[in-house]
């Protein structure tokens, strides 16, 4: 799998000279020399290598972290909702608070996804 003629390595910014394996990032589809990307020792006949460039790896890690944070926030909101059931509030206030919690969850999720 060689590089397109006009594509430069993400790391060294040189063209593919055909001496080492050329890798394409699974996420952004940009490429780099196996030596530059620290993916050395690849067999020259290896057809596909699952590789993600450093910038995309950071994005993926951030996305995973944000999803984990969203799940924690949703769990916290469910816990608050369960705690509110045990508190004696006027019915109209209790209904208002309970109705607001799912909307809060949705707003948190949307805000993080837009970030």
Overview in brief:
By secondary structure, the protein is mainly α.
Tell me the β content. Answer: 5-15%
Total number of strands: 2
Coarse shape? rod-shaped
Order of helices and strands: EEHH
Main sheet: which strands, in order across? 1-2
Helix content class: 40-55%
Q: Determine the N-to-C terminus distance.
A: 35 Å
Q: Radius of gyration from the CA trace? A: 24 Å
Largest sheet: 2 strands, antiparallel
Round the mean pLDDT to the nearest integer and report it. Answer: 78
Low-confidence stretches: none
Tally the helices: what do you get? 2
Describe the protein's architecture and organization.
It is a single chain. This protein has 115 residues and is mainly α. It contains 2 helices and 2 strands. Helices cover 50% and strands 5% of the residues. Helix 1 packs antiparallel against helix 2.
What are the key terms here?
zinc-finger; two-stranded antiparallel sheet; mainly alpha; 115 residues; zinc ion binding; Znf_PHD; zinc; 2 helices; PHD-type domain-containing protein
